[in-house]
Fold this protein.
Amino acid sequence: MNYQELTSFLRETNTSPYIIERHRLPVNYMLNNVANTEDILFCFVCGPIYGSDWSLGLSAVVITPTKVVFAGTTSDFNNAISERTLDVEKVESISLHKGFLCDDLRIITAGQTIKCNYVGNKVPNCCDAIFARVKAAVDKAKQMKTSEKTNNAVSVADELKKFKELLDMGIITQEEFDAKKKHLLGL
C-alpha cells in the first residue's frame, strides 16, 4: 500500500484532501510501520487522541487483524511521531459522541477509554460512516482471531486422532502418545 492508495482509502469516508495533507506525518508513519507488515482493515484520521495517561496530537488510526494502532504528533506538536498499540481483543466497545464543535469516537477497554477527537471534522454523515466502519473492522478482526483459534483447535484434535490411531496400531508406545498429547495440548 502506498500513500495514494491510503489517501483514496481515507477519501471513501469523505475525508477531505486538506485534512489528509494536514495528517501527512502520521499517515506516512502508518504506511512505513504498519501497512508494510499487516493488512489494514480500516484507517481514519482525527485530531488529538487521549488515553488514560497519554495523548497524541494530529493522529491516524489503523485497524489491522490483530491490533488498533494510534499514531500522532507528540503533545508539543513538533514533527516527532508517537505510537500506541491496543490488542484488538481488548476492545470492549466503541461509541460515537456527537458534540457541538466536534464529534468524537471512543474505544473502550477494561482499563481505559481512548477518545479520538474531531472525527469526521463536521462533514455531514462522515463521523457516522467512520464509526460504522471502525466497528465493522474491529468486529471482523475479532472474528478472524476467533476463526484462527478454532482452526488451531481443530488441527490439534486431528493430530491427537492421528497419534491415537498410531497407538492403536502399535506403531508408537503409550509413553510416546502421552508425551505427544502433552506437547499438543501445551501441558
